[in-house]
Here is the input.
Amino acid sequence: MPHSFEKVEAGPVLETVERLRDRIGARFPGRGLHRVSAELLTLVAEVASSTRNARGRRSWLRPASRIGVAAVVLVTVTLLVLTVDAALADAPDDRLEWVPLLESLVNDLVFAAIAIWFLLSVPERLQRADLLEQLHRLRSLAHIVDMHQLTKDPERLRSTFDPTPQSVPMDLTRAELEHYLDYCSELLSLIGKAAALCAEEARDGVVLDTVSTVETLTVSLERKIWQKIGVLNATRDDGSPR
Here is the structure.
């Protein structure tokens, strides 16, 4: 049995998301960010349930696919032996008469290889559709978090900031803005962890590439948020009254 530190476990991720949702609700109860955190909690629970179901399906799908492979191999070998025996019994004198037989043998081997590949890939392909849908939702949620922090520009807290009539009003204090940006960063990090949960039970190359894409996206968006937090700290250091 693998050590608990060797894989991302769904339980701790769920607990962390739930705790973050409560923290956001305590500080920003009426804001959309709280609803986003609740949506993330629901999605992580779905991912955890999906991975458990996938584990259960694989427990019987893999043995069934192995039995199917064994049956294909047995049938193919039997057909090849019978075909060769029949050909040797007839023993055609002309070498060209062996060409149809060789073509038939090659076709049988090709179809058997295709059938074996299909049977071996059944468990992963059945899981792929569900995981890709969940990863798509996680990617969309990451962009939603980014939209929430997009207008939270700490430059507007500087005493020298000159707003225009089209400037979005800043309804957060410096302390509230710092908490808000920090929550956005945590949400993005947990979205990446939820994507990693999908990779724990998948061996499909498409799924693993999509997981990597989501994780790269969340890291990139987090980097932008930490740049804003750096600017926010600079406004504090320059003595801006707000």
